[in-house]
# Entry
Amino acid sequence: MANTYTAVTKQDGGWWIGWIEEVPGVNCQERSREALLCSLRTTLAEALELNREDAIRSAIPDYTEELVTL
# Structure
């Protein structure tokens, strides 16, 4: 299932900076817009996986998972 997130990007001097609006802490800085978007995708995927692992670790041993759709 694909999810869509919003990347806020801007050029600041010789750098492109950006962050993912919906996920605090996912921010990057690169020399090109294309590299920035690639870094944001990678960082977002890593953050979501770490959050998922942390949530499950906190709930072990007795938990259930439910899908929530907005």
Notes: The beta strands are 7-12, 15-20, 27-30. Residues 1-42 form one domain.
